[in-house]
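Problem 3 from the worked examples.
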Amino acid sequence: GFWHKGGMYVRQGMVATSCCRFLRPRMAVVAAPLRISLAVALLLVAPQSPLQVAVAQQTLKLSATLTIEKTDDKVKTHDHVADLLKYAKDNKLEGNVVRFVDNMVQQLQKVLDAAKVVEQQKAVEVPKEFTPAKYRVKSMPKLQAKKVTVKKIAAKDLRAKLKQGKDINFAEPLLVTNATALFDGEDWDRVKRHWSAARIMGDEDLERDLRIDYWPPDKARARLVGNMLQMEEPEQVPFSRYIVICFHGTPAKPKLPGQNTEHCEQTVDAQSMVRNVSELDDLAIFPEIKNALPGQAEFRRRILEAGKDELPMILGKSAEKWRKGKGKLPYRYFVFGPSGSGDKLHAENGLPFYDILIHGSRRWLLLKEDEMNRVAEKAREALEFDKTSAYMFFEEKLPELKEEFGLKKYFEANQQSGDLVIVPSGWFRVSLSLADSISYYETILSQKETLKAVTDNAVWQPQFRQYQMAYCYETKELHKLPGVEKDSQLHKWLKDAIAKVKWDELIPGILSVLLQCGSTLILEKSMPELNVQGLTACTPGAWKACRARLKTSLKEKGSSATLSWLPEEVPTSIDDIPSGAAKKVGSEEL
């Protein structure tokens, strides 16, 4: 082929022209990689033949591309290339080879430096939303309460009341706007950074260990098998999978709030979402409040840790299941979900609590138990309002309850990020996330009447069919139970029932009573104002009776468990619980 230039035809590959200039052939450009890559952008001069290069005596420039994928270990790549540079220098390779590898090391170092800057920026950046834009569900500000009727209180005024000894169990709910003033220094910014979806998803330990109980909207929670109602189990999914299921849509089909998300709210034990409980320290904003629950939770943890070697020989194959069911006493929680999610109307186990919204926006409705029962008599069958999701409650049920069934005595509030809601005991509540949200809430147990009710409801309340403490007494001693008169109808019924109880029911029952009673009795020193030894059915005498009954039962069963980890004397402090495991079998004969 010939090129036509300045009136002359020149054969392709020739270098002379009519004006004695060199006509260079076309240059081939090396394309940059499309992925995250490291490359030296160079032009490669591509002569037509080795003879042409020799004639022109041009410098030959070559480029090499090193592609780094997102998942590649950049530090390791840098170290390996640095090893190559050392090898080239030590073995005195050609200078151009040394310069080539040295340039690559310098470029990789720039990549590492840039990544370090990005990480530093992320470490101090305070996220404005719970979820990254990729996963964010559209907010619903139009569903906010038209009028806020919950009484408001400033953070400083609340702090002053608590310092004066006022209990947090106020007569009515309270809304503390901008409760960030209750946090010290930069604690609030640290909380917002730490409890974002992106940070949680990036925590490798949580991704491995934390499982969310997810109920698909089309899955029944129970099914009838013959004449028995059998409970179903939820799907156990990691946090990242939960985020994809409940938050993630596509540009063509975004996740819409409401019926697509109403089932997605999660309430998770706060301790299960941390590797170290110190991660929750920034959220301990009320040091003035005396709360029995932390001490009770620690008692359970210590007693089960002390007896971990013997519980399997006492309970057999069911030991681990029993430990999981009885071993924890959650009182701190995280509640999170996408826009449009929220649980049905419910009460918080009779305990007061406070809820601080970290990210997002929520609408609350609260009403007392008597108003709830009054309206429920008229509306439960017609509306089933106490079984519907928060979204459907506010969208459909609330207008009907007001217009047709006379709902009047209730309070509403709009909670924004940084706002705190205080809910007294005995109040029912329903809350709807109007944006992707996460909050922290803590239940409080500090009043004598509440502690008595919680304890007795768990061990001995015959009028409500709670007879568990009867496991701790031989049939001839049942009259020692509170309110049981000898030869009364209740006494005769208990004697007949206890005589039929088998080991696999009796022994776990006694252990459960000891856990509950011990967690109440250990408050004697830390909260003497409660007078716990005479407050409930869990008296010092009941503790000794339960331990003695357990020891006798294990001996009759033929167990070699020592019970050395279980105090013989009544525990009055968590420090009365041995910190180590149980003694070796044989140290105490049963």
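Problem 4, a separate protein:
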Amino acid sequence: PHGPLTRAPTFSVPPTTPTTTFHESRFGNRHPYASQSMRMPTQVRMSSTYEKLMEKLPSAAVVDAVASVSGNKVVASDVATRAGVSLSEAKKDLTALASLSRGDISVSSDGELIYEFPSDLKTVLSSNSAKYQTLQVFEKVWPTVFWGIRVSFGVALVASVVLIFSTLLFVNSSSSSDEDNRRRDDRGFGGGGFGGMNMWWGPSPFDIFYYRPYGYYGYYGEGRDVKDPEEMGFLESTFSYIFGDGNPNQGLEERRLSLAAQMIRQNNGAVTAEQLAPYCDVPNPSDSTSSYVEESFVLPVVTQLNGEPRVTDDGDIVYVFPELQISALSSEVVPRTSESAMVLKRAGLPPSATAREIRNLLNMSRINTKGALEKDDLIRLLEDALPPMSMEEEEELSQQDPSLLLERQYKFSLAPGLNKVLAGGLGVVNLGGALYLGRIFSEYAMYGVRLPSYLGLTQSIYPLLLGYAILFNVIPLARNFWIKSENKKIEERNRARRKWSERLKSKAGDIGRKLRSAAKFATNRKQLKANDVIFDTKESAAEMEKSKNQLDLDDFDKLLDGDDSFQ
């Protein structure tokens, strides 16, 4: 008997009709899988297309953060701080971004990866990634499309009102036996551009349709495309009345992580729970001076920024973030609040206004500037002359404070007051007309009468008209109750964060002791430089070895220069 490896296995191929493939005609090979090999290029192309569609794109926040860096050389902690993402997500997105943009990666002596990207990062991404290019086109087109969607709700409301009340007029005119009344109704409806409906409308509603000439979608645009909510037209205001204007706290989690990471860096990588509290969803602090604090609220921030708990000699917990203390940048990420910039903005001046410009404005307002020599003195005079800040301005100023995370409250609608009243009033009128029309149609249905032509069309789509009229009034009503509930929760969270911030500034109780203990765990931020790199994808192995040897020689020369025993 032969062993299992003493003879080669044989394969029996079932007889098939011989076919000559390109491979056979050229090489004389009748391999049974030769014809299948000719299908591989198509499969490869399909696989390549699928991979392009499914390729992992870095988040827009990471791309923007990298593009905003001068020199485009960053490490993961820099991107996490600027973009407001976790360190693990920053590392994954940087790797994907380096692959798509053909960026370079170098390794420091500590094993830290340093990413370097081209200066025209977004242009390179668009040329290398069809998916990214498609998303860029979509972002440009979507505002216009979304504006059309918003306007369509106003058009639907007007169409519904016109359809319902024109049907009512037709039905009432057809049931009248008075020829003079019928002629008058016909003249009123057909000859004067809806003139006969003035008893329902008052002035023509079309006078307000183009309150603002929307040639493009500009309400949520950027730069010069930004429009004041007061300029929102009636048609677009209808959508705002029904569904609102979106989440005012979009990007809250990114902002939370960004502010927390910047605060951690400013405190040299070691902080307490009280320092993280103004950025977390925290309960109200207790009134007692006890040092015990339930610190579970810090876990989301600590986990995402790779923090590590340390226990002090006094039994307190300090959180250290060693990875955040490594950076390739030297500048601050989040600028400090500038109240002076808000004062200049309220006065109609740019933040970069000079002392001379401020003085001229004060003199034009006949405000005495005698004794005000410095710019800060002039800004103080300007602030005293301005009226008190509105709630919106106070909210905007608080949003710029990096020491505290505050959420914006929901607003029912950003549309102008008149447009909201018109939208709500027409919604109620539309619902009343739909209910009245339904009663008339029910009378015809009792006798099995099917109305002809235009009236028959309205009768067939009446369920849709009624459903639209009901939802038009129910959705805003339900949303109003939901907004009140959400705003109450937002106010409670903001109040709790303010209390924690005030307690931290006062250093009440044992907070001062814990802050001093945290300072003992602090480490200076290490800024990576060119001489820290031991490997770079831009250089060959020979060049890297030569550079390393040169660095070693330089270090040895420094030792010789500093040691007098060699003299």
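Solution to problem 4. The chain has 23 helices and nine strands. Residues 133 and 139 are 10 Å apart (CA to CA).
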